[in-house]
Amino acid sequence: MSIGKFLVKRLLQGVLVIWGVITIMFALRAVSPGDPANLIVGPAADPEIRDQVREQYGLNEPIYVQYVDYVQGMVTGDFGYSFQSSREVTTMVLERVPATLELAIAATIIAVVIAVPLGVISASRRNEPADYGATLFSLLGISTPNFWLGLMLILLFAVFLQDPMETYLGFSFPQGRRTVGFGEAVITLVTTGYAGDLLTWVRHITLPAITLGTYFTAMITRLTRSGMIDEFGKPYVTATEAKGIPYVLIRYKHVLRNTMIPIITVLGLQLGTLIGGAVITETVFNWPGLGDRLIQALNARDWPLMQGIIVFIALGFVLINIAVDALYATLDPRVTNE
Question: Could you give the C-alpha distances from 15 to 19, 79, 84, in angstroms and in order?
Answer without folding.
Answer: 6, 17, 30
